[in-house]
Amino acid sequence: MPDDHSKLVPLLPIPNRTVKRLCADDSAGSRVKVGHRQALTAQKTPVRYDWGFLLWDNNKSSLLADPRVLTMQLQDILYSQGFGTRRVCAGLIQQGWVSVREASSPNAEYALCTEATAGYEPEGLLLRVQGVDWPFHAKAYVLLHKPAGTECSQKPSTYPSIYTLLPPPLRQRPTKSAVQGVQAVGRLDQDTTGMLLLSDDGQFIHRLSSPKKHVPKVYQVTTKHPVDETQVSKLLAGVVLDDDPKPVRAANCSIVDSHRLDMTLTEGKYHQVKRMIAAVGNRVDGLHRSRIGRMDLPADLAPGQWRWLNASDLALLNSSA
Ligand code: URA
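That is the input. Now the predicted structure with uracil docked in place:
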């Protein structure tokens, strides 16, 4: 939020289909379509404006909604978090399965709410749904320690999907795209373990997975045959893979012990580590991704476990791309 609140203009109930773009010094009274208004909200979730303020930011030439005065109906909040259709969410609330704790009263206990249309400010809201605590997240950013023997596909062919390791709301969150829920940022092979990011924020996924962004990923490679300096030099100089005459090279590569290498890649070609290691006459026996950008896989996250990325994780990752 910009801190210059002098340009905030109060709006009395905002019409359902249009929103008035009002500001102290620019085009008072002109209209913006609802779709446009939604695109302008930070969360891109179906926010309902009951009473509010809008701010026209001349520097960015965009409308900003003041999150202090945005409320959403509880059924919509639950829906945005992936707890089912609006009807299912309304049912959960009416049946007494939902309690809430508001950001404005952090010391308060959770309070039962049975009114599906009750309005809450979603930012900072803590939900308790059927006994499970669920902090509101406008966008989902999660980290999974991928175990071996899982596929990064929604429709796996042989092994269980990594998505089965996530709770249903993360898989059911409504999105604007054809696929519901969070998506993996790139893929790891079924036998590869380690750090996997998932999100429903398309820009975040693109920033961290696009080869053009050169985000470094560190792999701990266990090899079948002993590793040596000749192999390392070749990996650093670049090797040619079968699908592209342009050589690919490791951004970093160092010997850890007789059968272990640490290797950093900045692209994400299919089976890239395995094919590069094969190109220097060796073979991968085990592969673990330990770092993405400036963030390490936390030591306390066991294989198969997931957790939300916090603000400092996101700052590290976003400063890597
Ligand atoms: N390179 C591979 O060969 N496999 C992976 O899973 C990741 C990178």
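The radius of gyration is 24 Å.
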